[in-house]
Amino acid sequence: MRPDTPAENVDHTAEAARLERTAGLYPEDAEALLLRAAAHLELAGDRPAATKLYDRLLASGGTLENPSLVRALKASNLWEYGHEAEARAIIDGVRAASPADPAPWIIVAEALESHDELEAAHETFTQAARMLLADAPEPPRPTHPLLFGRHRVRRMLGLDHDDWDTLADTLHSMPVTLDELHDPKRVWSLGSDNPAELEAEISRLRAELGAYREALSRPFPVAMLHWPSEELTELLSVYPSLSSEYPSYERHLASIEESLRELESSGTRNLGVVQGTVPSYEAFAASEGTTPDDPSLLPQYATTLGARGRAVSWPPQRGAGCWCGSGRVYGECHGVASTPER
User: Fold this and answer.
1) Is residue 323 part of a domain?
2) Most CB atoms closer than 10 Å: which of 103, 194, 281, 295?
3) Sequence-distant contacts of 162-167: CB under 8 A, at least 24 apart
4) Where are the beta strands (DSSP E) in 202-313?
């Protein structure tokens, strides 16, 4: 949620203003855009302005897709500039709400951890894990930070490994093990007066940061554009010149899966699928000063939807529904390894 671009390379205040303007143009995406704007304001050091954006979102009431996430981000931000009591009250509210999304849990637990509330952070990570992972045969990727954060806090508290710590170890893919990464001595060494110890620890941290940055090198997914059947029919009836791009609905779906697999095999990461609608596409064409019947506009439209947080990651998690909307699980639909009919 928070951009990780160094402040010296980005005018975060200007970027926040740009995102606010964009939110006015695309009200259906205002939540995601304003959250990114608030993140830039936090990086710019203007935490009160970020709080105002969080309050603006919360004032919109039932239209929010993830109110717990907004509250969690607001609490984390408030605590950073001295509003501890209000932050704690919001954190208690988030925990009581028991959101099904792991992100709010992670944010409030890390806020507690960063302020040395290790026992409370451990309780929060554990509460979330019990709720979100108790019946999960395989932890979904968005829940992995819950297990990693819980492992980290337990190491700081000197607790023995349990089954969830073992699971966290199996999910961790970086060269440095979780036990080494979360070793309290590494944290304490940063306060050492020995230059050699400091230099060695800084080198290790740089190596680990490089690995994480490489894994997160693409800020948005490489998105393939999917038109649901009804939308594609309407698109081609209004703009028949696009028929050469979409000879049939079946071929359209097969082409998406083929392209995604080719990109994956070439090493491309963060792949996703975005869903197009004719009104949204026409509005995008107008904003670009061109006509919707221009085929070169289609990939630009897909990229813009991905940048606005509209992409669904590909491939779906095991047991999840297929991206095409058929209602079948991915492994029994487009996830079947076969050569589609042409």
Assistant:
1) yes
2) 281
3) 164/129, 164/133, 167/139
4) 222-226, 271-275, 312-313
Confidence of residue 10 (pLDDT cuts 50, 70, 90): confident
Does 48 lie in the same domain as 149?
Answer: yes
Residues 150 and 35 in one domain: yes
| Exposure b/e, 81-95, CB count within 10 A at least 16 = b | eebeeebbebbeebb
The contacts of residue 294 (CB under 8 Å, 6+ apart) are 285
- pLDDT tens, position by position, 83-126: 999 999 999 999 999 999 999 999 999 999 989 899 999 999 99
Chain centroid, CA 117 distance in Å: 26
Q: Is 6 a residue whose pLDDT tops 50? A: no
pLDDT score at 76: 95
Six token digits for residue 213:
């940055």
Specify the amino acid at residue 89: A
C-beta atoms surrounding 166 within 10 Å: 11
Is there a single domain that holds both residue 43 and residue 135? yes
1 and 104 Cβ atoms separated by less than 8 Å: no
- Residues spanned by the domain of 141: 7-172+179-186
Counting the structural domains of the chain, the total is 3
Residue 2, in any domain of the structure: no
* Segment 265-305, tens digit of pLDDT: 888 878 999 999 998 898 888 877 788 998 989 998 998 88
